Structures are given as C-alpha cells and as structure tokens.
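Quick one, probably user error.
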C-alpha cells in the first residue's frame, strides 16, 4: 500500500509539472508561417555577424510608465511580448557581450515587428554578472585557485563579484580597497574593532591576484558568459516596477540598471539601483 501511495504521489507531481510547463508555453503566442506573433510586439535579434541570438533580453516601457516588461529571444532569435496596452514604447535589446540597441515603437492594436542588430561590446567586463565573473576568474595554478575562492568567500557575500571587478586597479590599489573592506560590516559601516581575520590573512596574496587579473596591464582572464538563458528559461516574462525610494522620494540613482554597459550600480544616501539581470 505504501508503495502504491508513492507511485500515485509521483504521478501527480509529474502531471502538475507537465501542466506548469504547458501553461508557461501557452503564454507565448504560436508563431505564424512567417514566424511572427499575431497582434503583438515581436521581432528577431541578431549579432553583428547576422547570426540569430538566443537568450537576448528585450525590454519595453510605455512612455510615462514606471513599468518595464522584459522577455527573451528563443533559439530562432525571436522574441514575443505578451499583449501590451496601446501607446508609444521605448524598446531595447541587450546581452552580456553585446552593445545595447534601442528603438521607439508605436502600438495601436495591430502586430508590430521590431528587429535589432547588436554589435560586440567594447568593455564586456562592465556588463558581466557575478556568475560570469566567477566563471571567468583564472585558476591556472593552485595559488590562483586559492585566491579565487578567497575572493568569493570574502567579497561576494555583501555584493556581487561584478561590483568590484568591473573596475581596474593595480596591486597597491586593490590592497587599499582590502584595507577598507576588512574593517566594515555588511552595509559598509566601520564597526569592526579588529580586521576580518580571513581577509586580513590573505590580503597581500589577494591584492596581487586581483592586480594581475583586474589591473591596468595585460590580464590572463577571458570572459566566460554563463548568465544567458537557454531553452525553456527563455519563456520567462519579467515585470519591473520603478518605485520611488521611501528614504529619498523623487530621487533615483544615476544608473537604474537598464543599460548594463554602465556597470553595476551602487547605493548612496538611500537611493539604490539594481542590475537588471535575472540569472
């Protein structure tokens, strides 16, 4: 009897999972013979070489609206938005490793197509997510491997790895940064009476490693982009709400996260920005 109950539970769980996948897929309108959506905003995204790109983030925001809707391109380079209200929209496409492309689109109830051609980014490092950076940090020998893990365990708990690594400093510069970071708490306030032991112990070696990887000279690191969605993950629809901060109403950070080439935003005086990358 117990085995029979387990089989029933597994069957129900499998059925629910399949229904969830079917429901998600049903939210994306079926393609016509021309590969377009009926009555919706859609289009294709290609790289500079003309190749279709999967997992590109395409966002749309109506004029005067605080709401941004984002979707992703599928394996055919096609993106399709859910039905949007009529009006003028700013639409933009971007991905780590490719420059942002923008367009203005007027929706009036009929099908609209907006294609994008994305050129290679000049500074991929400023676009990369924390996951991209961790995957890209070199570990050519045991010392590099150790410092990569020291950086992750000491620096990625309070902020993404991409926040410090989007910038470049020589070994002396990284050493000064570590001098500060080993004495502050998670919100950046000097409350520690003694330095963080683990970071203090590895400071010299970590500064040397970061100076080699993210210094002003030649670097051994190569971008390893792992954050771009593929397959069923491209069916996701993201809705963002631009809400005024209670601490500083009417004030917004200089970077709102919509253009990844600007780098990862920080926080100051209660005004916060988030990098709009959902991986």
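Nope, works fine. Designed sequence:
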């Amino acid at each position: 009897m117990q085995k029979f109950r387990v089989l029933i539970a597994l069957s129900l769980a499998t059925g629910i999972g399949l229904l969830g996948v079917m429901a998600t897929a049903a939210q994306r309108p079926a393609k016509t013979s021309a590969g377009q959506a009926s009555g919706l905003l859609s289009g294709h995204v290609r790289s500079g070489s003309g190749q279709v790109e999967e997992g590109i983030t395409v966002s749309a925001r109506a004029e005067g609206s605080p709401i941004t809707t984002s979707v992703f391109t599928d394996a055919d380079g096609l993106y399709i938005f859910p039905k949007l209200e009529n009006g003028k929209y700013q639409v933009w496409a971007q991905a780590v490793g490719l420059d942002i492309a923008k367009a203005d689109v007027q929706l009036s109830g009929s099908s609209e197509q907006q294609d994008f051609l994305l050129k290679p980014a000049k500074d991929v490092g400023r676009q990369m997510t924390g996951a991209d950076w961790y995957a890209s940090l070199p570990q050519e020998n045991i010392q590099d491997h150790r410092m990569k893990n020291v950086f992750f365990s000491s620096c990625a708990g309070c902020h993404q790895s991409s926040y410090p690594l989007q910038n470049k400093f020589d070994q002396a510069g990284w050493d000064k940064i570590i001098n500060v970071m080993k004495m502050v708490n998670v919100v950046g306030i000097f409350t520690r009476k003694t330095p963080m032991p683990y970071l203090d112990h590895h400071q010299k070696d970590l500064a040397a490693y970061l100076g080699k990887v993210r210094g002003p000279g030649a670097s051994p690191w190569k971008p390893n982009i792992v954050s771009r969605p593929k397959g069923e993950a491209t069916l996701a629809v993201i809705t963002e709400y631009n809400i005024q901060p209670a601490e500083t109403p009417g004030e917004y950070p200089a970077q709102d996260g919509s253009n990844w080439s600007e780098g990862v935003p920080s926080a100051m005086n209660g005004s916060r920005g988030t990098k709009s990358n959902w991986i």
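The first strand starts at residue 41 and ends at 47.
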